[in-house]
Amino acid sequence: MKVTTRPADRSTVVLEVELPPERVKSSIDLSVRHLGRRTKVPGFRPGHVPRGMLERALGIDRADETAPDPVYDDAKEHLFEASVVEALRDEKLDVLAIPAPEWTSFDEATGAAYRVTVPVRPDVKLGAYETYPFSIEVDTVDEAKVDAVLEQLREQQSSLVPVVDRGAIDGDYAVIAFDGNADGVPIDGAKAERFPLVIGKERMIPGFESELVGLREGQEKTFQLTFPADYGETDLAGKDVEFHVTLLELREKSPPTLDDDFARSLGDYADLAALRTEIQGRLERSALDRARHVFADRIIEFATGNSTIDVPELLIDREVDVMIDELKVRLAEQNIGLDEYLKVTERTEDQIRTEYREQAEHRVKVLLVLGAIAEREGIVVDDAAVQGELGRARGSAGEDSKLITYLESERGRSYLRSQLRRTQTVETLIDRWIAQHPEFSNVRHIEDQPFTDLVTEPADEPAESPAESVTEVSRT
Predict the structure, then answer these.
(1) What's this model's pTM, rounded to 2 decimal places?
(2) By 3-state DSSP, what share of the chain in percent is helix, strand and coil, each rounded to 5?
């Protein structure tokens, strides 16, 4: 057997294999015995059918190159399976998959040859990954942030009270009765006896809730609106509809007074000052944890940006598959199916896959870079650490027996080991940098400084939709 290789694009190698006639003949003989055991030929026992009789029974006509040839097809399959493994071993190629070959010749007298382009594990050329042109940045926790948390707590503890001596405004909680009709004909589904809503949240079609502003309890109003042209119900899209609304109930939030009694109602706090001190400390610890996480993300991006990798298309395709699975899980948590999501967003799965490709390629690069750094740093995760992580997973998985079964399998343990190795890699780089900058020695993970949950710092921006957010890289 003669094997030649040459590099190709996107971390692939073209493998060309030439096989001598005797190997072709041996493979054909094997296929004749194999097919002979499955093909009934009158007068012959299974597995003892002469080749000529078998080929006639199978309708093989070698004079017609376009005609099916089960014997040659079976022989090629067995010959490829055996020879390609041998060729890859001899050439010391670490391949990610073995695609189907292109046969360039197959002849019993002269031998056979095929060509196959195999994706190989890409070579990661690491650049700088320790000399960062940035530092840890810890947000300052000032009085304004403590005040914002206190307001959040007051909002959470608010009660709903009847609105007195005024009409409805945005933010009020209302209960309405309404019906809608077009050209005097009632619209199916556009009617409710008691419908709750928060005015101004735009739960209804555009313009509906603004028509409620100024109404008092018991008042009625009739108004006309035009449904949006892209409304989901095509029968109503762009149509003028007349609504008749009665405001049945109107309430507003009444937050408690910010005083010592309020503080004591939340826990074992002597007074409001003690609650403020507690919030201040928790926000400061949260700021330290967030600073470390942001620093870790910047380290990963810095190392990835300075590295050179030619990512195979196969790995990108696999990562897109993972991202689609992640999307399905997030949707399932909201009792939404993928087909329903595609319909609402007016996209196809192929469109989503195309949108995901750039991010998928970046995620693959991150995984490969962290793996290369771990290799260079000699980071090894022992069995005890994997077992400990498995124990934590059992505790958090609840009744998800499928997840636990997977994590306890060899593949699942490998996943946990890879995840821990990447985490330890980044933590090693962070701790090394902090050792060189002791002024940041207090920047530790929040889990290293335990405290019970009370509040979280208000976000400046709304969180991403669960269906659109992307989970961080954490796979093998």
Answers:
(1) 0.70
(2) 45, 20, 35
Is the pLDDT assigned to residue 467 strictly greater than 80? no
Cα–Cα distance, 387 to 120 (Å, whole number): 31
Q: How far is CA 347 from the centre of its chain?
A: 18
Structure tokens at 409: 């399998």
Is residue 179 a contact partner of residue 244, using CB atoms and an 8 Å limit? Answer: yes
- Please answer whether residues 198 and 177 qualify as being in contact, where contact means their C-beta atoms are separated by less than 8 angstroms: no
Helix, coil or strand: residue 283: helix
Helix (H, G, I), strand (E, B) or coil at 117: strand
Q: Is the pLDDT of residue 476 over 60?
A: no
Domains, the chain: 2-119 (3.30.70.1050), 159-254 (3.10.50.40), 268-448 (1.10.3120)
Are 209 and 201 within 8 A, CB to CB?
yes
First vs last Cα of the chain: how many Å apart?
A: 35
Residue matched to tokens 């060309």: 16
- Predicted confidence (pLDDT) at residue 263 exceeds the cutoff of 70: yes
Whether pLDDT at 10 is above 70: yes
173 and 160 in contact (C-beta within 8 Å)? yes
Residue 210 DSSP one-character state? G
CA distances from 236 to 180, 188, 243, 346 (A): 11, 10, 14, 18
| Residues 369, 254: Cα–Cα separation, whole Å | 53
Average pLDDT over residues 252-281: 96
